[in-house]
Amino acid sequence: MKVYISADIEGVTGVTHWDEADRLKPDYNEFREQMTAEVSAACEGALLAGATEIWIKDAHASARNLIAARLPRHTHLIRGWSGHPFSMVQELDGSFHAMLMVGYHSRAGSGANPLAHTISGNIAGLKINGSYASELLMHVYTAAYVNVPLVFVSGDEGICEDATWLIPPIATVAVKRGVGDASINIHPHLAVDQIIERVQTALQDDISKCRLPLPEHFAVQITYRDHAMAHRASFFPGAVLEQPHTIGFESDDYFEVLRLFSFVL
Ligand SMILES: [Zn+2]
Q1: Which three-class secondary structure state does DSSP give residue 243?
Q2: How far away, in angstroms, is 85 Cα from ligand 1 center?
């Protein structure tokens, strides 16, 4: 069994302030270690379930957060950004049996994480087919595009609720709840224990029930905090300026949506 893990940090246990997600700040090391512990836990659960090959995308900021030597030996670690539109799920393809997300966080416009955002702080809101989209939604559609089910997510309560609404049988570990600029967390070691157990169970279960049908058509709206960014983005082929801060884009092919995202987000 071949398993893919996409890992972010704003949904890791404890992370509450941008300094804790910034490699140039002293607060960062503690949370880089916890991110590594939670990804290792997901690997351990996958190995217990019979995974023979695990690929991990370090998908936060520089994409150079995970401490490689602490990951199990059966892993391939993707560091940095290739520029491919698959972005946080680079190298994902139909040869993988399942995808896991670790450390994922609530979307722009949500109050469920002090660090809620979608891709960057420039984006006030991103909608796909009328629904506000998280980074999870953007990348679960990519997984559906190559026919890989998302079977597990860990992160804040808000993103776990979004994932369960989208894929009811998905396994989740909610490690924290956002309250304004604060977060209420479970113990970091408990998060690790729960991730091992729920990833193992999820992968031993019938993973096909987590397959998400890909919509036949995509209508995307991106609202920027700065109207000048919307103006600039409106020149992407096919994009239109709908409001001073908002562009619209439509396609039947999700790869074209990803191409848009990689140039205008
Ligand atoms: Zn991040």
Answers
A1: strand
A2: 17
Sketch the domain layout of the chain as residue ranges: 2-110+135-210, 218-264
Q: CA-to-CA distance for 78 and 89, rounded, in angstroms?
A: 10
CA of 118 to the centre of ligand 1 (A): 9
pLDDT in tens, 150-197: 999 999 999 999 999 999 999 999 999 999 999 999 999 999 999 999
How many separate helices (H) and strands (E) can be counted in the chain?
6, 12
DSSP E strands, the chain: 2-7, 53-58, 75-78, 98-104, 123-128, 131-132, 150-156, 171-179, 182-185, 218-224, 240-243, 246-251
Query: Which CATH architecture does the domain made up of 2-110+135-210 adopt?
Result: 3-Layer(aba) Sandwich (3.40)
What is the bridge-based pairing of β-strands 98-104 and 123-128? unpaired
> Tokens standing for 162?
């979004």
Q: What is the dihedral of CA 216, 132, 134, 163, to 10 degrees?
A: -80
Residues around ligand 1, an ion, CB closer than 5 A: 8, 10, 60
Predicted TM-score (pTM) above 0.85: yes
